[in-house]
Amino acid sequence: MEKSSTHFYEDRPWGNYEVLHKEPGFQVKRLEVKSKARFSLQQHMKRAEKWIVVQGEGLATVGKNQTSVKKGSIVEIPKG
pTM, whole model, 2 decimals? Predict the structure, then answer.
């Protein structure tokens, strides 16, 4: 199996992200969201996502559902 250990970091208006690990079929990113910042709503037709909150709290919107999240919360975003 081909592995990539190259880390990639990028600043964004909402905070930043870093790709920690990437292999065919999945990747692990660390995202840091600034206080009171937000992402735009997105849709991914080819992949599902799982987010684990490791610090802080916020509001996650998946489809039409909004859920409060905090440290330890897991948000599953289905494909499509």
Answer: 0.81
